[in-house]
């Protein structure tokens, strides 16, 4: 019978489910050394956020098959070490969705009717009803930034309050939005239309300060902003300035960039409401995450595939050796596509040609989904959960295999809304070989400027001059064209990040129709 170690407090419902799957031992407050001493006898380990599952703990877990996290985040688990050991890491990402959505609605009502301010006033012995004239939510427009698990639940509740709902989410399909009777709009349109705005996106780098001074300036002076997602998505200094000046009516936050927030200017403002990161703190949510993670652990111990794995199962070594460079290639091609062409993703089409078509390409499909979606989510996307994540966003996957070979032994083509990028692996190195109709020879790693422009004298030279004026060093250059003085594509590998003001100048060069800055892979960091 499998042995399960529960190292943090877990609701009884979860413990009971685990007892059906194996022999359960419950401990608490174990340090690393103590955990290392106990873990060798166990097949499964279940934790919340307190216990740290380090690489040393995982290395000591000779029988360990699965680590379960009762909650969403896995920051306290060395997932890479677990993956190397072939140990599945599972979590419970859906258990606190309702709790977070309901807390959002609680803050929405509190902002609409000045609930906390009125309560404080009465406690001071006042009875000044005229100071607390609120607004009704019926008939108002709610803007949901991020239509994922929590955002969609908020939208459903808002409809019950007779609110109109619009949403911004660059990776949710129109079809999925229609399921929730939500109109997808640009972020700019959402900011300008909404009476209440609620944020439900992950804190990935592309979302840091997503709502800053410029975005706040687009909102109605009567608008109210709610953030129950993550601190850092809303620029706190800009929000404080907007609230102080009357540019924004009110705001509420359950999360802060620094927690506890300490001496934060927002906390001094009468039109701001704060709660201490309690969006998921309900009795029901604690029970739900405990039961959900127990179900995941039980599935693994029974030899089944879990729903919410955050790392991929191990492949046979020889298969992994062959597929790994193609997985890297596919992820980079998809990431390149997303950065070059953008747009809402309704479907991802993948063609596998030549020798590759004879292999299991699930790892490559997952890599394509990762390349497209990873910048927009905190979820770790891999071969276990990639299709589930894509499906939850209404993204269709189309796979085609052809054993007939082209100019290459194997070829991968990623096609999204009409544009396609193809690549292969040469001498173990991923290479992009075609972007739409333009043939290229590109190692997809590092920083690039990719332009589409008229094939005429002066364009390339002007681009080089502008980069030189801003001390941006060009590492290599490729130029392709469809015909003399027709349409051209130029790819410049650069050693330095290109600032937004430089990109603006480059896009203003005569004959330039499109220019994108792209960062791919490890060489693009810092």
> What's the pLDDT, averaged over the residues?
91
| Total beta strands | 22
What low-confidence regions span 5 or more consecutive residues with pLDDT below 50? Answer: none
The share of residues in extended strands comes to 15-25%
Number of separate domains = 4
Rounded Rg:
26 Å
- What's the level 1 CATH class of the largest domain? Alpha Beta
How are the strands of the largest sheet arranged?
Answer: 8-7-6-9-10-11-12
Question: Pairing-aware structural class of the strands and helices?
Answer: alpha/beta
| Tally of alpha and pi helices | 17
The shape, in one word, is: globular
Distance between the termini: 49 Å
In CATH, the topology of the largest domain is named: Rossmann fold
Major β-sheet profile: 7 strands, parallel
Level of helix content?
Answer: 25-40%
State the CATH architecture of the largest domain: 3-Layer(aba) Sandwich
Query: What assembly state would you assign to the polypeptide chains in this entry?
Result: single chain
**Can you identify the CATH superfamily of the largest domain?**
NAD(P)-binding Rossmann-like Domain
């Amino acid at each position: 019978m499998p042995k399960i170690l529960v190292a943090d407090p877990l609701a009884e419902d979860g413990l009971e489910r685990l007892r059906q799957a194996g022999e359960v031992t419950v401990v608490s407050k174990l340090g690393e050394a103590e955990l290392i001493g106990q873990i060798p006898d166990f097949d499964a380990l279940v934790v919340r956020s307190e216990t740290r599952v380090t690489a040393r703990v995982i290395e000591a877990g000779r029988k360990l098959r699965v680590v379960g996290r009762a909650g969403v985040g896995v920051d306290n688990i060395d997932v890479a070490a677990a993956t190397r050991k072939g140990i599945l890491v599972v979590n419970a990402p859906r258990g606190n969705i309702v709790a977070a959505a309901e807390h959002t609605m609680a803050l929405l009502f509190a902002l609409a009717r000045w609930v906390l301010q009125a309560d404080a006033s009465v406690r001071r012995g006042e009875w000044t009803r005229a100071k607390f004239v609120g607004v009704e939510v019926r008939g108002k427009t709610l803007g949901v930034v991020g239509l994922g698990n929590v955002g969609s639940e908020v939208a459903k509740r808002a409809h019950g309050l007779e609110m109109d709902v619009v949403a911004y989410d660059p990776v949710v399909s129109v079809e999925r939005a229609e399921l929730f009777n939500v109109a997808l709009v640009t972020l700019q349109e959402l900011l300008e239309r909404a009476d209440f705005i609620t944020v439900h996106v992950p804190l990935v780098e592309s979302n840091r300060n997503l709502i800053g001074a410029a975005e706040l300036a687009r909102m109605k002076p009567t608008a109210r902003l709610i953030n129950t997602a993550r601190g850092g998505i809303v620029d706190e200094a800009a929000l404080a300035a907007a609230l102080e000046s009357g540019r924004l009516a009110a705001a509420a936050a359950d999360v802060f960039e620094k927690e506890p927030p300490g001496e934060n200017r927002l906390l001094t403002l009468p039109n701001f409401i704060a709660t201490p990161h309690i969006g998921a703190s309900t009795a029901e949510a604690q029970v739900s995450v405990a039961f959900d993670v127990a179900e995941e652990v039980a599935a693994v111990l029974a030899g089944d595939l879990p729903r919410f794995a955050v790392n991929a199962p191990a492949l046979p070594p020889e298969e992994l050796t062959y597929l790994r460079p193609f997985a890297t290639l596919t992820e980079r091609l998809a990431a390149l596509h997303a950065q070059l062409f953008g747009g809402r993703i309704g479907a991802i089409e993948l063609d596998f040609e030549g020798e590759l078509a004879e292999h299991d390409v699930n790892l490559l499909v997952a890599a394509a989904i990762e390349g497209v979606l990873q910048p927009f989510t905190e979820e770790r996307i891999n071969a276990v959960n990639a299709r589930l994540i894509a499906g939850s966003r209404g993204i269709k996957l189309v796979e085609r295999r052809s054993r007939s070979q082209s100019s290459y032994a194997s070829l991968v083509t990623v096609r999204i809304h009409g544009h396609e990028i193809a690549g292969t692996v040469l001498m173990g190195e991923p290479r992009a070989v075609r972007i739409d109709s333009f043939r290229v020879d590109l190692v997809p790693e590092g920083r690039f400027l990719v332009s589409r422009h008229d094939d005429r004298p002066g364009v390339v030279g002007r681009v080089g001059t502008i980069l030189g004026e801003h001390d941006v060093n060009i590492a290599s250059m490729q130029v392709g064209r469809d015909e003399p003085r027709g349409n051209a594509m130029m790819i410049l590998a650069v050693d330095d990040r290109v600032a937004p003001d430089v990109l603006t100048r480059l896009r203003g060069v005569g004959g330039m129709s499109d220019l994108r800055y792209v960062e791919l892979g490890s060489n693009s960091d810092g």
